[in-house]
């Protein structure tokens, strides 16, 4: 028994001598009742007796190494479990031969001989290794994240002058940490506090700092993100990142790395999804802003179901292409849609310039409304509308040359309308020759008088002012529309008007005549409006108001000559 025990002790002492450093020690102990050498002094028979020499005993602060054979009960706690309980495992809270805290793994070497063994690791070395591994993980995170706006900083005490363990992302030399506020999150964490605060970074950037302590080792973990890039959605994940850093200090490196990597991937995917969602929201907002006025688009985005508004005073305009039916029968579908696209593009560009809202197009009819709240045309909407109508007729008249694409479409339309008119006149002539009684409703003078109107690309324009109701009709495709007598009166002004004339209601005329400043000339006309009876309308005959230079540039129009007379074509 003595030989076997001494052999084990000698073997263990040789291992301790070969392993450098004081932080790792292998011990062999027996029950105090089975000491192989009667010369050993037993101080406490209830405690195991350690047979191996205390490692580096000559450097120990204790005075007499020979008294170390039976040691502090805390040092033999794990050995007692190995010997008395015949078990194996690990234990924290014991001490080594120097009296330092240690982590011990113990083993029942020989249950028959009552021999136990333990391997003690210095807690400080273990913690230090974990801390440095955690610092390496912080450095790896900082190097892998391409964004310069996020950084993880790891530091340890003392609080007065913290020791930064992680590598800083910005190399600012002696200028780093000049501002005392930059150390405030680290000091708060070293005070065992957790939180989020707006602060100054070590390189004087404005950042949001999330800080958290690691209590056992006086370690502070701080995550900083540039304030301009902060997003509320990411804050939850910043907290998860702090939790993963703390967990890294007390768990295996592999598991913690996987958790950190998963969090980073989730943050990246969430950020990418958020960016994609923001792009889609912007696209939807742009579509809604093109479909509805500003106030109505906002209410649709907010999810309001019943959107309707009564407007006490607006101006409504209808523009119709003269003799469009005859024209559409003589050109191909591609030519027809191209002509309408260009025509409505010019009308809508001019309307947008004056703050007039395009309500809708019905076939060849263009309907617009001026006077909506929070628009350019809200103040003196009647002038905005009449400017718009004048510029539209002027743009398609003889006063301006269009760009090549538009000129070809308009020339084609004029040619087809001219042919249709010639055929109409020829059929009327044949009918007059074959009939004994000439038609009283059509005369040569009438044909001659209207020739200028029908052989060119021309429009009829009607306009009225007054109250109206505007709202969004819900359904598969929500539609903005307006209702009221004002809309009906504007439609009647258009249908009873003449080509290349703007006919306005008496209400609109009274408003325009107060503010027109001599720009426009009118003549009155008596019209029979369906649903309204006999009413007085006013035809705009001429004006000195031209298309503004900005619109000419936007539409690539070139002005040729002077004063525009409505209802006539210049022959210069």
Structural account:
With 572 residues, the protein is α+β, with helices and mostly antiparallel strands. The protein has helices at residues 2-18, 77-84, 123-144, 184-190, 232-250, 253-291, 294-301, 324-328, 333-354, 381-395, 404-434, 444-454, 485-495, 506-515, 549-555, and strands at 24-30, 49-50, 89-95, 101-110, 115-122, 150-156, 163-164, 195-200, 206-214, 219-226, 308-321, 357-362, 365-370, 400-401, 459-473, 479-483, 501-505, 520-529, 533-543, 558-559, 564-565. Strands 11, 12, 13, 15, 16, 17, 18, 19 and 21 form a 9-stranded mixed β-sheet that branches. The chain has a 5-stranded antiparallel β-sheet with strand order 2-1-5-4-3, with helices on both faces. The chain is rod-shaped and about 150 Å long. The N and C termini lie far apart (134 Å). Mean pLDDT is 75; it is low at 59-66 and 435-455.
């Amino acid at each position: 028994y003595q030989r076997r025990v001494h052999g084990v002790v000698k073997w263990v002492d040789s291992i301790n001598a070969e392993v450098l450093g004081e932080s790792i020690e292998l011990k062999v102990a027996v029950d105090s009742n089975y000491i192989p050498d009667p010369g050993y002094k037993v101080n406490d028979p209830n405690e195991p007796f350690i047979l191996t020499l205390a490692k580096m005993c000559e450097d120990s602060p204790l005075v007499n190494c020979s008294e170390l054979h039976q040691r502090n009960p805390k040092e033999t706690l794990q050995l007692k479990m190995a010997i008395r309980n015949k078990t194996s495992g690990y234990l924290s809270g014991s001490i080594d031969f120097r009296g330092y805290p240690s982590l011990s793994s113990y083993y029942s070497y020989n249950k028959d001989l009552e021999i136990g063994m333990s391997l003690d690791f210095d807690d400080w070395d273990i913690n230090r290794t974990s801390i440095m591994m955690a610092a390496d993980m912080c450095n790896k995170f900082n190097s892998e994240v391409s964004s310069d706006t996020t950084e993880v900083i790891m530091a340890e005490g003392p609080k007065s002058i913290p020791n930064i363990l992680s590598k800083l992302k910005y190399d600012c030399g002696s200028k780093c940490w000049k501002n005392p506020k930059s150390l405030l999150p680290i000091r708060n964490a070293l005070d065992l506090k957790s939180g989020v605060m707006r602060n100054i970074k070590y390189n004087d950037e404005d950042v949001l700092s999330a800080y958290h302590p690691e209590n056992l080792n006086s370690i502070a973990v701080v995550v900083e993100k540039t304030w301009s890039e902060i997003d509320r959605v990411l804050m939850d994940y910043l907290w998860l990142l702090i939790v993963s850093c703390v967990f890294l200090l007390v768990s295996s490196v592999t598991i913690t790395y996987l958790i950190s990597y998963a969090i980073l991937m989730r943050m990246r995917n969430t950020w990418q999804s958020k960016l994609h969602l923001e792009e889609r929201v912007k696209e939807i907002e742009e579509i809604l802003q093109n479909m509805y006025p500003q106030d109505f688009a906002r209410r649709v985005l907010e999810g309001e179901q019943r959107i309707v508004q009564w407007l006490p005073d607006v101006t409504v305009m209808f523009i119709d292409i003269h003799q469009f039916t005859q024209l559409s029968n003589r050109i191909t579908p591609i030519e027809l849609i191209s002509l309408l696209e260009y025509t409505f593009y010019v009308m809508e560009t001019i309307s947008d310039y004056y703050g007039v809202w395009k309500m809708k197009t019905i076939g060849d009819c263009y309907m617009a409304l001026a006077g909506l709240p929070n628009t350019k045309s809200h103040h003196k909407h009647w002038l905005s509308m009449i400017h718009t109508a004048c510029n539209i007729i002027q743009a398609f008249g003889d006063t301006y040359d269009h760009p090549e694409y538009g000129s070809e479409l308009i020339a084609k339309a004029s040619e087809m309308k001219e042919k249709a008119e010639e055929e109409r006149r020829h059929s009327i002539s044949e009918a007059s020759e074959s009939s004994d009684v000439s038609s009283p409703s059509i005369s040569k003078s009438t044909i001659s008088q209207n020739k200028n109107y029908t052989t060119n690309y021309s429009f009829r324009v009607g306009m009225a002012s007054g109250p109206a109701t505007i709202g969004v009709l819900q359904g598969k495709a929500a539609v903005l529309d307006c209702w009221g007598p004002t809309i009906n009166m504007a439609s009647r002004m258009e249908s009873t008007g003449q080509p290349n004339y703007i006919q306005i209601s008496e209400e609109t005329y009274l408003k325009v005549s107060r503010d027109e400043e001599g720009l426009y000339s009118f003549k009155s006309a008596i019209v029979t409006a369906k649903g309204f009876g006999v009413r007085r309308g006013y035809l705009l005959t001429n004006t000195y108001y031209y298309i503004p230079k900005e619109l000419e540039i936007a539409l690539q129009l070139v002005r040729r000559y002077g004063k525009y007379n409505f209802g006539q074509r210049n022959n210069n």
